[in-house]
Amino acid sequence: MWSELDEVLKGELERLKESRLFRFLRRIDSPQAPEVVLDGKKVILMCSNNYLGLANHPEVVNAAVESMKRYGYGAVASRLVSGNMKIHEEFEEHIAAFKGAEAALLFNCGYMANIGVLSALCDSARDLIVSDKLNHASIIDGVMLSKAKFAFFRHNDPEHLEAILNAKRAKARRVLIVVDGVFSMDGDIAPLKDIVSLAERYEAMVMVDDAHATGVIGRTGRGSVEHWELYGRIDVQMGTLGKALGGFGAFVCGSRALIDYLINRCRPFIYTTALPVPVVAAARRAVELLEAHPEMVERLRSNVNYFVSSLKDMGFNVSSSKTAIIPVIIGDEEAALKMSELLLERGVFVAAMRPPTVPRGTSRLRVTLMATHTKNHLDRALEAFRDAAKLIGII
Ligand SMILES: *Cc1c(COP(=O)(O)O)cnc(C)c1O
Fold it and tell me: In tens digits, what is the pLDDT along the chain, a chain of 395 residues?
């Protein structure tokens, strides 16, 4: 043992506290519903990714239970050894059809899917990954893990992307352009039509991360390809099972060749244990529910429209959102923090986002809504927003 370890770590933690970047865990002691018990108090939850309320849907829970009675709990080996079960393959076929792709592959989570796909597809210094500046941390980590060269283009700026492709395409063996379909901090949507046209012109691959898009955008909630009508024109569609689909895990969709390549070359797929049976069974039921009830997506959208327009009417700085993520810009860091504390006192749980997560001077509350929030939940939350903002003098 190293006798100084704790002293060294405490020093680091002190520095985090001084720069007010120290983080701690809050505890929920109830199912993940629109109202939860947070640190002993009942509050309206407005910072979860349970966009369609499926985390706690009785049919989803039941599917998990029934599958376990039949097939047990764990898969207890890598898919490539003895962990590949019928339920994994059946669900992959289902997900591929749902996303309008030839084939799909399950991953244990979105983080692993992103680092795995990027490092498998771009595995040489002759390759180039071009990433939106505001892409999710797991994409940034995937870029770093790959052996490829990389470049970042300004957020949602296809002209800057083109300038990079123009300067660098000829020198690269393969180029992969990667974006979040829906950006996790601002809830805005990547301009995929322009990006795909550029990719086709410059012979580059396109990968879209639909973590916040699946179950949310597109007429029936199928994500970016449906939203932009880009059927058959995106090489890699990644999505997660842990947000709108209410559970855990992720998937990648694309051509049969892409999926076979990943099975052979993607280390976070190969060197890990397959997803447990109930996780896959629950995800399958969640997808079936989404297919049968696209009105859930509609309900989410109307909740977002109502909440945004009400906040605007009150004088908040909030832009229209077509997704479940609503950034309410407060500006000052302290004010954003104070707002979230005042909201919590009034029974509304919303996360405050401060630098370095967001640019200085744009500290914000990041509200996420669910299809299962009732009008009463929304009105109570809006009342709390009005009250808190008046107290700190921002409206
Ligand atoms: C949440 C998220 C991930 C990670 O997915 P997990 O399944 O939670 O690991 C990846 N990309 C984006 C954009 C995300 O929001």
Answer: 999 999 999 999 999 999 888 888 999 999 999 999 999 999 999 999 999 999 999 999 999 999 999 999 999 999 999 999 999 999 999 999 999 999 999 999 999 999 999 999 999 999 999 999 999 999 999 999 999 999 999 999 999 999 999 999 999 999 999 999 999 999 999 999 999 999 999 999 999 999 999 999 999 999 999 999 999 999 999 999 999 999 999 999 999 999 999 999 999 999 999 999 999 999 999 999 999 999 999 999 999 999 999 999 999 999 899 999 999 999 999 999 999 999 999 999 999 998 888 888 999 999 999 999 999 999 999 999 999 999 999 98
**117 with 236: CB under 8 angstroms?**
yes
- Domain co-membership, 165 together with 186: yes
User: Ligand 1 mean position to 111 CA, how many Å?
Assistant: 6
Give the H or E element holding residue 251: strand 250-254
Which one, of 133, 241, 109, 132, lies nearest residue 178 by Cα? Answer: 132
134 Cβ below 6 A of ligand 1: no
Nearest to 199 by CA among 219, 221, 177: 177
Whether 302 and 384 map to the same domain: the answer is yes
Same domain, 280 and 303: no
- In terms of pTM, does the model score above 0.85? yes
Mutation pick for ligand 1 pocket among 106, 131, 132, 136 (CB with most ligand atoms within 8 Å)? 136
Q: Note whether 112 and 119 are within 8 A (CB).
A: no
**Domain limits for position 139:** 58-292
Q: Catalytic residue at 171?
A: no
- Best mutation site among 138, 183, 216, 252 for ligand 1 pocket (most ligand atoms within 8 Å of CB): 138
Residue 275 CB–ligand 1 contact under 6 Å = no
Per annotation, catalytic residue among 99, 227, 243, 373: 243
Annotation says 184 is catalytic? yes
